[in-house]
Design brief:
By secondary structure, the chain is mostly beta strands. Helix content is 4%, strand content 47%. The protein contains 1 helix and 11 strands; from the N terminus they run βββββββββαββ. The strands form 2 sheets. Strands 2, 4, 5, 6, 9, 10 and 11 form a 7-stranded mixed sheet that branches. A 4-stranded antiparallel sheet has the order 1-3-8-7, with no helix packed on it. The longest helix is centred in the last third of the chain and has 5 residues. The mean pLDDT is 96.
Length: 126
Amino acid sequence: QVQLVESGGGLVQAGGSLRLSCAASGRTFSTYYMAWFRQPPGKEREFVAAISWGGGSKYYVDSVKGRFTISRDNAKNTVFLQMSSLKPEDTAIYYCAADRDYCSGDGCSERAWDDWGQGTQVTVSS
């Protein structure tokens, strides 16, 4: 298991940008696929993005393609979500997740992820 702590959330105007970070504990960070999920107020949790062990493969939900970028720095045990052109519908609690197993495409959004952070709030005003 790995402990995950998100940071970087806040209040931003529509069209603005935020960069979320997820710091992981331990020495085995590079052995985990990483992902971001979000839960808008009053709605179910939804998948946002995933990244492979070395960062060579990435997957995004259609609603954020071209606006969000997931990346990782294995030397610093950290995964990032760079968000630009933010919209009010991006308002949600954002969670990072980790799993030791491979995934691709829709499988990344549908499978159960092993470990979760506590979440960080992102609010986009109009």
